Amino acid sequence: MEEKPEFSTSSSNFLYPRHPYCGKFTPEYLVFNANLQEFAQRVNYISGLQTGGKLSPEEAYGQIKLLWKQLKRTKKELNIPNSDR
Question: What is the rounded average pLDDT of the residues 24-28?
Fold first, then answer.
């Protein structure tokens, strides 16, 4: 069996960084944190594409708005309460 090159793992970690969850542990919070990290990563890519001229500001805004709605829906489905701040 052939091993995957180390470059594949390191490039994956570079392109899709994940950080350990350090907050109050519940399965819902853990899932939401993973979704939040995915949201942040995608917003970063969209911002880069818009800055590089590959997306118009309107397209970038529309994509980010859609991602935000998905994140809000996930939060609601997981019954994550709003903070009291």
Answer: 88
Two tokens, residue 15: 């392109």
Range of the domain at 67: 25-77
Find tokens 């993973």 and name the residue: 34
Q: Is the pLDDT of residue 22 over 90?
A: no
Torsion angle defined by CA atoms of residues 34, 37, 38 and 43, in that order, rounded to the nearest 10 degrees:
160
Query: Is 13 within the bounds of a domain?
Result: no
Q: The whole model's pTM is what?
A: 0.74
Say how many residues make up the chain: 85
How far is the C-alpha of 85 from the C-alpha of 73, rounded, in Å?
21
Residues 6+ apart with CB under 8 A from 39: 67, 68, 70, 71
> Encoding tokens for residue 41?
């990563």
- The answer to the question of residue 18 being in a domain is no
